[in-house]
DNA sequence: CGTCTAATACTCGATTTCGAGTATTAGAGA
DNA sequence: TCTCTAATACTCGAAATCGAGTATTAGACG
């Protein structure tokens, strides 16, 4: 079993919302939207209802009443239980106090950089940079507006944090793209050569790896250290 | 259907590995480990085999031979197909060039900060800070070692990127913890007061929200802006 | 007064995901 | 030579996930 009975982060948001007052699921979703919490916690309707059901099954929340207005579908109003309150506090404690291993998709991409030619990668990084910087602009503008409305920072620290991460990403990929363009990245000589061999002579990377000394000489001693791991 | 036929990032790593040479699944997993790629892409055995099957079903890879050594279980060696090669390049292009909305668990936590008392939160942030800084140390040491072995940076940019993000996280939570401790965070007066009311007089946050003016006066005009969203 | 759109309020089930378990064997050490 | 551990090489099914679809209705607009 997973560490938590209900592990979807949306369940955390549901508990957080219900600890304020009883609500029906759809109301939770609109509340999250209106407060922008859907920027920090992924809101998906499919998940919302299954998560609510799971929370109820585990005794963290309970149905309070089912009402029907006109011909609208029934709405079940839920309220949080004491164990639910406890679970929320415990979960929050963990989220803040304990880092977890995250896997950023860009990390996955960077791990396979040589899979595309250097200049193509630089181009893609610059493309990403534009998008990231645009997002930074947007968030900054939103912050300015919230500040001008005297809406306390306490309620948007999560967005500040996101901004800090985006800025770090921007800075890093900016540098990296430049280093690739200028060949300042250690290993790029090999990278360029491998792609040249492939594009001009049709020798595939797989073939190159079969006889590295032939294609790259002994300048690339470290290649012995990336072992084609004899099976 | 999801944008990709096989969307698990591990599938990307499988394609990347097989574009080097044919392998059997378990060999892929050991290769990923020995190169530290499992730090950038989540490796789970359960996922590995289902992902390989899915890749085969979609024509991205194909079984090349099935061998048996001694009494060991059979091992099926897979190789990448041309469409697989194409899919890999396309996926890599997307991973690098296009940012995706990520949901960092700490963001979720920060979005509900008032759910714990201010000093407790500061304490938790400091606890997290320690762990994050320890990780930064570890990664830095690993980088030093790779550099001293003259192992080209090209092959560990993903780890550099991760380090950049961790440093940004460290800086941010360091500041935030301090701002909470010193009450420099706008909104912390309200935060403290709410918890005091609860801890000393037993008035729950839910009750406080029912009559904000009574408990917080008109200093907190912005509270009208966090609407208990009349249903 | 009729039509259209946007918002309301969900449901469904096909995929995906994953952790925990299993069985075997090579080699280290006693 | 025996035992024990670590590594090898997977399997399985319970649970989670999610996007796309559906049905209703209030109110805008002509």
Continuous helix count of chain A: 10
In helices, the fraction of residues of chain A equals: 55-70%
Name the assembly state.
homodimer
Q: Kindly, what is the distance between the CA atoms of the first and last residues of chain A, rounded to a whole number of angstroms? A: 35 Å
Strand content of chain A: 5-15%
Q: Using CB atoms under 8 Å apart, which protein chain pair has the greatest interface?
A: A-B, 89 and 90 residues
How would you explain this protein's 3D organization?
Two copies of one chain form a homodimer. By secondary structure, chain A is mainly alpha-helical. Chain A has ten helices and two strands. In chain A, strands 1-2 form a two-stranded antiparallel sheet. In chain A, strand 1 and strand 2 form a beta hairpin. In chain A, helix 1 packs across helix 2 and helix 6 packs antiparallel against helix 7. The first copy, chain A, starts with 8 loop residues before the first helix and ends in a 15-residue tail after the last helix. The model of chain A has no long low-confidence stretch (mean pLDDT 89). The interface between A and B is large, with 89 and 90 residues. The first copy, chain A, binds a DNA duplex (30 and 30 nucleotides) through helix 2 and helix 3.
